[in-house]
Amino acid sequence: MRMRSKIFVLCLCLILTASFFGTSTIVYAIPSKTAHTNTEKTIWWELDGVKDGSSSHNHRSARSFRGWGDEDDPYSAFAVWDDEQYRISKAPVFDLGHGFIEESRGSVAIPDYYFKGDWTTDDAKKAKSKIGQAFKMWGDVMSDRLDLVTGIAFEETTTEADAEIIIYWENIDDYDCGGKWAYGITVTGEPVGTGDGIADIFDLAHAPVIVSSETVYVAGVKKTRDTDYSIDYQIGRIFFETAPATGAAITADYTYYIKPYLKFDSVPPDKLVTVTGEAVGTGDGTKKVFDLAHKPVKEDSQTIYVDQPSPPTYTIDYQAGKITFTTAPDVGAAITADYTYFKSGGKWSFAVDPKTIGADEWHFLSVALHETGHVVGLWHQKDGDLMDPTVGEPRNSDFDCDGKRRYFTKLDEYDIWDGTKWLAPVKDPDPVEAVRDLYSIPKPTVVCTVPEFPFTLPLITSVAMCSYLLIKGKLSRTKQRFSRSKRRE
User: Fold this and answer.
1) What is the H or E stretch that residue 115 is in?
2) In a shared domain, residues 44 and 166
3) At what angle do helices 430-438 and 364-376 cross, to 10 degrees?
4) Fewer C-beta neighbours within 10 Å, C or N terminus of the chain?
5) For residues 52 and 64, is the Cβ–Cβ distance under 8 A?
6) Are residues 311 and 378 in the same domain?
7) Which domain holds residue 301?
8) Is residue 9 within a helix (H) or strand (E), and if so which, with residue range?
């Protein structure tokens, strides 16, 4: 009986020890052919072992990711987090494979977001909370297979220098549906250098360069990547197979990476108003610039009329509502315009349940989930799921985006307003499926990890005490004394 008790206590001690230590997956990004850790610059997961983007996944699904600008698939990928690096590809087929955040490394591997600017107003505070909730929802996506683990997470930092993602709360003052995001700056026609017949290495002015975004020209002739040259995207360095000829001008178009940033409109987007037959002015033979009565103007919504035999061409500044003719309209020529402009009227709703929002209110959580979805690595879609640009817009039809109104409170389910009534919630697994495909790896070996101080000291103390009691038999004698005292009662 004493031996059984000792064995029981020993097992109990081991269980308590395990719970103190915890178990953690030591995670590495392992491609289909060659093993490497997730600290490498690019991670490839290819069924065929060839780094060409033709078979970009080999663990959870057999589908190849559609890349830059493709909005017709259930979801498309154009970026992926590899540790704290945001890997971006503008290739027609996404050619960067996928990544994973190594959970055992904690915040060392997790990308941080930072709220920059003034977030002290009541609405800003509510928005900040919803943005944090949105990031958490993406990070909470779990694997649906026993042989895989899914790893993506984000956390807030209060130090801008430590952030991989910057978030602003400001009046965007443009035509976006509640928020906008960016990650790179495009350069066109940059003079890279001049050939001398000897030098075969040239540096771009900016780095890191987005993978597959560059076009290189020598003497005006487009060169082919991996045939005429190779490029180190991280440092922006071009290596020519043959040195450019003496006097040959080397130029490049490319996009270089900046930290991803999100902007949420502190003054929510405006509704649309159409104007017909507005009298803009009368020509005097010299004046070329005329102002519309309202601004900003919706792009491509305008028709400008000049009452003369050969009306002059014009350009328009949509933000300023300003028309500039190439030649001055004739004396006495009447100038009129039809156009649509944005009128103030929208506001944010921070309600969880979209069915409670007003007709002119934008559902902030839906917009936050959409914009953070871009940070996860997903491109726009047209099939009505979370990455559809129309998500979260007001029920009032007089707003910029068109189509049925969709409101997300979960990544895989949304409520829909069909223009007259609320429909039953719709299940749409696309956002969750996308995360699982982007951030799944084979389930690694489970190992014990030692927690950092101050947890180590009490743990060692408890284990030592258990061992001492077992060895000396004091635990057994204590049990006997307790039993005798119970019998006296």
Assistant:
1) strand 112-116
2) yes
3) 30
4) C
5) no
6) no
7) 271-343
8) helix 2-21
Q: Does the reported pTM lie above 0.85? A: no
CA 390, CA 271: separation in Å to the nearest integer? Answer: 14
Strands 112-116 and 155-156: parallel
CA distance linking residue 394 with residue 178, whole number of Å: 11
67 in the same domain as 81: yes
pLDDT, tens digit, 9 for 90 and up, residues 161-170: 999 999 999 8
Structure tokens at 395: 């029920």
DSSP string covering 294-348: S-SBPTT--EEEE-SSSPPPEEEETTTTEEEESSPPPTT-EEEEEEEEEES--EE
170 & 84 share domain: yes
Chain segment 386-430, per-residue pLDDT in tens: 998 888 888 877 665 556 789 999 999 999 998 889 999 999 899
Q: Residue 214: CA atoms inside 13 Å, Cβ hemisphere, count?
A: 31
Structure tokens of 426? 């719709």
Pick the closest to residue 182 from 267, 257, 96 (CA basis).
Answer: 257
Examine the domain organization and report whether 158 and 301 are in the same domain: no
**Strand spans (E) along 52-102:** 79-82, 85-88
* Token pair of 40 as six digits: 């490498």
Residue of 196, 192, 194, 218 whose CA lies nearest to 206:
192
In 3D space, the residue among 63, 54, 155, 40 whose CA is nearest the CA of residue 103 turns out to be: 155
Alpha helices in 377-452 (DSSP H): 430-438
Is the peptide bond preceding residue 454 cis, with omega within 30 degrees of 0? yes
390 with 462, same domain: the answer is: no
